[in-house]
Design brief:
Layout: E1 4-9, H1 16-25, E2 31-37, H2 48-58, E3 65-70, H3 74-80, E4 85-90, H4 93-109, E5 114-119, H5 129-137, H6 148-162
Parallel strand pairs: 1-2, 1-4, 2-3, 4-5
The structure holds coenzyme A.
Length: 163
Amino acid sequence: MERIAVYPGSFDPVTNGHIDIIERGLNLFDKIIVAILYNPAKKSMFSVEERKKMLKESLANFDNVEVDSFSGLLVDYARMRNAKAILRGMRAVSDFEYEFQLALMNRRLDKKIQTVFLITGLRWIFISSSIIKDAAKFGGNIDGLVPETVKLHLHKKFRQEAE
Ligand code: COA
């Protein structure tokens, strides 16, 4: 049976920290579905379609990775996609409480789906999508922190905003 994991998140935008989790996750799973949460309540910089495009371009060299989006409950989506695991990255102790709560709630909702945590690579421990957007907005150097396509999309976005 194929071991499928869902890697959910906002990915607004994807960073090298996320890519690192996906790359290492592929050692554990046959297939990873990167699932963008469609959440109209959360203000995002990029549309779901833009986020999907950036993820697909960043992951073009990876086999066995699919990019999709979902709304509603994560466990319902995982079940629908035949995934037995939810993959999450853990950056620091500050992530723990939220992740713990999320994993326990998801287990209560469906005890057949397991949450698997990977510790984020040390090089990416300090980054988040927000901090990247902040740095890029004020002209900070984000080389090496995000895939090249994300850098181009961010620059384009801020140029449009300035016009
Ligand atoms: N490297 C770098 N940054 C990382 C990272 C990594 N490995 N892992 C997470 N991050 C950052 C993200 O960039 C994001 O940054 P931001 O807050 O600046 O945008 C932040 O950590 C949050 O991560 P994300 O994974 O996008 O979490 P989220 O809280 O937006 O979404 C879901 C989490 C999608 C798993 C959750 O909201 C969900 O499942 N929702 C569906 C409803 C549901 O089923 N809820 C649970 C049961 S009620």
